[in-house]
């Protein structure tokens, strides 16, 4: 009898989606959600010795699910594998290990919708490098590497540790500040295609302890309804429309709400009146409405009185997804949001999501 040609992955990396900001917590809070980016990594022990000169061949990258038609499959161009190579190079592993033959990526997180697809790809790269290089990095050090690429901590922290998380970036001394702000093109350089070529400069190693976080309680009764418009909005573009400075009134408005929200979402039963008001924002959503037709209407017309079960509603990350937190009536809430988006000519998909565990590496 012939043996079926099935390769068993040597390990799996699994990273959740995230929703950042949750209204007033711009660049501060993140929530991990039950859509996942999964890497199935195959190692071949027989290929573990490096060639005497030049670089070993990179792994074959295959991809299924969200983003499959647009994601680069060249490991020197793909975000996850470039981040992995960056972390490996910072630890004196100049190339992908020769034993790394294949990575199959299966992705449930839609690209450019405000559900943390890039943060998940970055964390997956850090975990991949940690496993390939047996680096045994702490969560704190993993965050340092992730923050050299994705420079706001909300998505990457929640994706790494899971749950409802608040984080800040430490004020670094001038030398460390400069080290943490090197251009992204130096962290993730273009790699020359010629296998004999040198990579050039050594990679910028991150300073220690850039990001710090705390996990808040989350009431088990709260689920997240993600209402996902069928168009992409890059986070970079949605950050360009934000002002450099804010009035004291607007900052106090957000801080008052964020202080209440981080505790209110952990209380059982959750208080809809308190949460609805505490999820309002004046720092990013008002500026992003021009990029997301329907945003002001969806966040103002759906309320706990008009839609029992609804606790609060906001833009997810940089958008265009809308995040409704609710205890019941998920379908009614999502369909009402769909109707509002339709008046703007925008079609949506929606999903009811749970709060997810943090990232994992599972060995077979
Ligand atoms: N799994 C992935 N593998 C490779 N690149 C990815 C992956 N997920 C996201 N990206 C990259 O990140 C981009 C989206 O990032 P971004 O604009 O920050 O939106 P999001 O809100 O989804 O994080 C994609 O267009 C793609 O270039
Ligand atoms: N705080 C960031 C969060 C971006 O999240 P994403 O999921 O849209 O990448 C912002 O609001 O810009």
From TrEMBL:
A GO molecular-function descriptor: homoserine kinase activity
Any Gene Ontology biological process: threonine biosynthetic process
Pathway the protein contributes to: Amino-acid biosynthesis; L-threonine biosynthesis; L-threonine from L-aspartate: step 4/5
PANTHER family assigned: HOMOSERINE KINASE (PTHR20861:SF1), HOMOSERINE/4-DIPHOSPHOCYTIDYL-2-C-METHYL-D-ERYTHRITOL KINASE (PTHR20861)
Position of the signal peptide: none
Family: Belongs to the GHMP kinase family. Homoserine kinase subfamily.
Domain GHMP kinase N-terminal: residue ranges: 78-163
EC primary class: transferase
Catalytic activity entry: L-homoserine + ATP = O-phospho-L-homoserine + ADP + H(+)
Region listing for Disordered, in residue ranges: 45-66
InterPro entries: GHMP_kinase_C_dom, GHMP_kinase_C_sf, GHMP_kinase_N_dom, GHMP_knse_ATP-bd_CS, Homoserine_kinase, Ribosomal_Su5_D2-typ_SF, Ribsml_uS5_D2-typ_fold_subgr
UniProt key word Nucleotide-binding: yes
UniProt keyword annotations, A-Z: Amino-acid biosynthesis, ATP-binding, Kinase, Nucleotide-binding, Threonine biosynthesis, Transferase
EC number: 2.7.1.39
PROSITE patterns listed in its UniProt record: GHMP_KINASES_ATP
Organism: Serpula lacrymans var. lacrymans (strain S7.3) (Dry rot fungus)
Gene3D superfamilies in UniProt: 3.30.230.10, GHMP kinase, C-terminal domain
Keyword Nucleotide-binding: yes
Domain GHMP kinase C-terminal: 271-339
Name of the protein in its database record: Homoserine kinase
Pfam families documented for this protein: GHMP_kinases_C, GHMP_kinases_N
């Amino acid at each position: 009898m012939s043996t079926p040609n099935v390769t068993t992955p040597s390990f799996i990396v699994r990273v959740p989606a995230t929703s950042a900001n949750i209204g007033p917590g711009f660049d501060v809070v993140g929530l991990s959600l039950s859509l996942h980016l999964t890497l199935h990594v195959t190692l071949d022990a027989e290929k573990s010795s490096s060639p005497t000169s030049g670089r070993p061949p990179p792994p074959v990258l295959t991809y299924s699910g969200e983003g499959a038609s647009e994601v680069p499959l060249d490991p020197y161009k793909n975000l996850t594998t470039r981040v992995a190579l960056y972390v490996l190079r910072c630890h004196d592993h100049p190339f992908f290990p020769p034993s790394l033959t294949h990575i199959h990526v299966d992705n449930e997180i839609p690209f450019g919708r405000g559900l943390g697809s890039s943060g998940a790809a970055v964390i997956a790269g850090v975990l991949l490098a940690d496993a390939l290089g047996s680096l045994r990095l702490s969560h704190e050090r993993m965050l340092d590497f992730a923050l050299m690429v994705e420079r706001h901590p909300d998505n990457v922290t929640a994706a790494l540790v899971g749950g409802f998380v608040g984080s800040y970036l430490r004020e670094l001394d001038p030398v460390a500040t400069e080290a943490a702000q090197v251009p992204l093109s130096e962290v993730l350089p273009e790699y020359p295609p010629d296998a004999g070529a040198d990579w050039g400069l050594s990679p910028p190693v991150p300073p220690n302890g850039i990001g710090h976080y705390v996990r808040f309680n989350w009431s088990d009764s709260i689920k997240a309804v993600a209402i996902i418009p069928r168009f992409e909005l890059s986070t970079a573009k949605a950050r360009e429309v934000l002002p450099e400075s804010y009035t004291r009134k607007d900052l106090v408005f957000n801080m008052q709400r964020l202080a209440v929200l981080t505790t209110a979402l952990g209380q059982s039963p959750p208080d809809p009146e308190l949460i609805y008001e505490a999820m309002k924002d004046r720092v990013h959503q008002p500026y992003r409405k021009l990029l997301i037709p329907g945003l002001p209407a969806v966040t103002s017309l759906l309320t706990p009185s008009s839609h029992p079960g609804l606790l609060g509603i906001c833009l997810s990350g940089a958008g265009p997804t809308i995040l409704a937190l609710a205890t019941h009536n998920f379908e009614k809430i999502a369909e009402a949001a769909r109707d509002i988006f339709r008046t703007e000519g925008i079609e949506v998909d929606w999903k009811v999501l749970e709060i997810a565990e943090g990232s994992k590496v599972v060995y077979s």
